[in-house]
Amino acid sequence: GGGGGGMAAEGDVELELETEPNGSGGGGDGAGGRAAEKPRKHDSGAADLERVTDYAEEKEIQSSNLETAMSVIGDRRSREQKAKQEREKELAKVTIKKEDLELIMTEMEISRAAAERSLREHMGNVVEALITLTN
Fold first, then answer.
1. Is residue 32 domain-resident?
2. Whole-model pTM over 0.90
3. Is there a contact between 24 and 7 (Cβ–Cβ < 8 Å)?
4. Taking 80 as the threshold, does the pLDDT of residue 111 lie above it?
5. What backbone phi and psi angles, to 5 degrees, belong to 128?
6. Residues in CB range of 7: below 8 A, 6 or more apart
7. CA–centroid distance for 23 within its chain
8. CA 120 to CA 29: how far, in whole Å?
9. Domain annotation covers residue 59
10. Separation between Cα atoms, residue 1 and residue 4, nearest integer Å
11. In this predicted model, what pLDDT tens digit does every residue of 85-110 receive, in sequence order?
């Protein structure tokens, strides 16, 4: 039974099985089962990794789309900003009379800035400015 002893030593994890006659067989079986399980675990690990990689790539694509969208929005904003600045420059060139400005301020009870803006928008025409403000 020396060979049997060797088997028992190998499968000494399951101590209770040693006493049974087919214990050594069971131990061998268990080992075989464990060995068979290993590649399966490995495969699932690889599959998980693949899934994670896919997910990461998807996220990267999404974020780059977002960046593109943001830069498009940014471009549009800066274009609008430029157009606004151009308009402000044009408006600033318009000569307005101080008395017209004061008239609008008192008539409409609005701030100097608002009165000035409306007057400039109507190329200094106080009547048009007042008409627009009353509408």
1. no
2. no
3. yes
4. yes
5. -60, -40
6. 24, 27, 28
7. 59
8. 95
9. no
10. 5
11. 999 899 899 999 999 999 999 999 99
